[in-house]
Amino acid sequence: MLDNVKYGKWLRKLLLRLNGPTPERGNYIYPAESLCALIGYSIGLGNLWRFPYFCHRHGGGTFLIPYVVCLVILGVPLCLLDQALGQYVSLGPTHLYTFMCPLLSGVGWGMALILLMVTIYYNILLGWVIIYIVQSFYSTPHWSHCYDKTNGSRLVDCITHNITQADEAAKTFFEQEVLGGMWEDPTQHRLNWWLVGSAGCAWFLIAAVLAVGIKNRGKILYFTVIYPYIILVFLIMINKTLHNTSEEGKGWLHLEMTPNLTHLANFTVWTDAAGQMFYSLGVGLGGITTISSYNTFNHNFIRDGFLLCLLDMVTSLLCGYYFISLTETQAASNLFRVSSAFLSVLDTQPWSSLFFLMVFVLGFNSQLMMVESVTTILFDQFKQLRRWHLGVVGVICGVLFLLGLPMCIAGKTGLQVFDLMDHYILRYSIFILTLFQLIIAGYIYGFDNMMRWVRKEMQQWVPAPLYYYLYITWRYITPLFLVVLLVFTLCTDNWSKELEEGSTSFAVGHVIAIFPSLLLPMFALYFCLTRGDKSVKDLMKADPSNFCPEFRRIIRDPVRRPVYGLDNKEETSV
To answer: Which of 61, 84, 51 is CA-nearest to residue 298?
Structure first.
């Protein structure tokens, strides 16, 4: 009898899930949670790794000038635009642009495709970090051992004692134990199972945190956003103490803050600064739009946008301070080689664990928000799947894990696939898609129409200087700058050299770089062929019944179906 009652209750729950009302989309409970989500998404490995590299490559202070200029004319305008649109309609980028301008709905889908590809290769970075975290708990991490230069084998009885030995050992450890061996035969395609397990662990953690839901995730973000800054400040203090009397330690400020203005004539500096803005701040990818779509309707997104851009710049400067102040030669290497070599010389085990945990948390926050954006697109398209939130999240993470396995191949092959993704994903399409995003907002839909509902409906305070700043950037400066960047990138790319390095990688790389932008004409053609009685001009107009606040769309929803006589409330007793 008790078994029948038990299974009867389970059956009622199943029927309720199958036929009950679709779960609500949800919102962040507190305004601070939204800001933490934005910080977690934008501030990550791009600030910690790429910014110091570009500073070293372009002479420190020289790179800071185009970086700040790009922040003003690219970062801030695009960030505020993404926030305004996402918060107004409470939808991800794919539905947003479909309702805002059906003919150019490919903008949202192209952004989603880029973001999807970024999540695949970004998780490999988390897999690398997990390997370092595991090694950091050893009494003597493997990156502190000497390696045989002939075959790359680790010499257990030899420990590095100076920065030169430590740097070489850190390089060999990364190549041999993290990548699985650079001496591997590239024709064998053997999987590096340590990296496969680490990447799988990272995906499991992503799925577990996403499963708790939007309302409970904010509590996790409070810790993961604050923790990296605490560790970074302590490491800067320790590094400054160790290098206070050395020439490298005294010369970091000169390298960082003294620009060589002649280098500004090299347009590569500007393209790298713009690429860093897209990579670190994450504008134009739909992630900020998705996060803002979970805000309450009257949330002060303008304040959050300026705070985010300011904090992103400060974090990049702190990371540049830390890495360039280690040694000038190391700053040109990758994050893992520089850090593990420094920690070997420091020879303090807790700091190794704390540092690589900080690196993991920074990358984990960004990856979490990017995967959240991918799942949001699916849940917005198929609302019924919200009933099976945990299962859907697990399937998505599992599929993305499998797509990343080619980058887990041991040796040069896996690294080449990773470099291919990293080099081409943000190459051309991001400029084209953000350009059309500005055309839609500034011209087709209209700047004045946007400002009208930002001020009156969303009740945002937009002072006159900010109003004219957004007007000039959204309509003129930012689109023109994107066109110049795109044209220069196309004209200066050495395609013949890339073909010599490998025709297959050249073809695959340019498919990755160009295909997201090809969704623009593909979706435009689809809507033209299925427009029915509508004219092309009608397809350029916003759909007022859907491009509107969420509460207006909910009012027009049909009456929810009954659930076999159930009152949509679970019984508390039997």
So the answer is: 84
Its sign, for the CA torsion 543, 546, 551, 552, is positive
- Nearest alpha carbon to residue 337 among 178, 229, 193: 178
Residue 98: give the domain boundaries. Answer: 24-555
Please give the backbone phi and psi of residue 156, each rounded to the nearest 5 degrees, phi first. -65, -35
Q: Encoding tokens for residue 516?
A: 């997201």
Kindly state whether residue 3 falls inside one of the protein's structural domains.
Answer: no
User: What span, in angstroms and rounded, lies between the C-alpha atoms of 303 and 31?
Assistant: 11
Sign of the torsion angle spanned by Cα atoms 40, 46, 51, 53: positive
| CA separation for the pair 77, 468 (Å, rounded) | 12
DSSP of 128-186, one letter per residue?
HHHHHHHHHTSSS-GGGEEE-TTT--EEEEEE--SHHHHHHHHHHHIIIIISS-TTS-T
- Beta-carbon contacts of 498 under 8 Å, excluding residues fewer than 6 positions away, are 505, 506, 509
- Please state the domain count of the chain: 1
Which of the residue ranges 55-69, 448-462, 545-559 has the most confident prediction, judged by mean pLDDT?
448-462
76 in a structural domain: yes
Mapping DSSP onto H, E and C, the string for 31-94 reads HHHHHHHHHHHHCCHHHHHHHHHHHHHCCCHHHHHHHHHHHHHHHHHHHHHHHHHHHHHCCCHH
For residue 384, give the DSSP letter.
G
φ, ψ of residue 61 to 5 degrees: the values are -60, -25
Q: Residues of 464-502 as b/e, b for ≥16 C-beta within 10 angstroms?
A: eeeeebbeebbbeebbebbeebbeebeeeeeeeebeeee
Residue 7 lies in a domain: no
Q: Is residue 572 part of a domain?
A: no
User: Highest mean pLDDT: which of 174-183, 394-403, 411-420?
Assistant: 394-403
Decide if 358 contacts 171 (C-beta within 8 A). no
Q: Is 232 left (phi over 0), alpha (psi -120 to 50) or beta?
A: alpha
Instruction: Render pLDDT for 449-491 as a digit per residue (tens, 0 to 9).
Output: 999 999 999 999 999 999 999 999 999 999 999 999 999 888 8
> Which CATH number characterizes residue 234's domain?
1.20.1740.10
DSSP 535: -
Mean pLDDT for 137-153 is 68
More confident site: 235 or 109 = 109
Contact 114, 425 (CB under 8 A): yes
pTM for the model stands at 0.87
Phi, psi of 110, rounded to the nearest 5 degrees: -65, -40
Instruction: Supply the pLDDT for residue 465.
Output: 94
Dist CA 437 CA 97 (whole Å):
9
Closest C-alpha among 41, 81, 54 to residue 331: 54
Q: What's at 187, amino acid-wise?
A: T
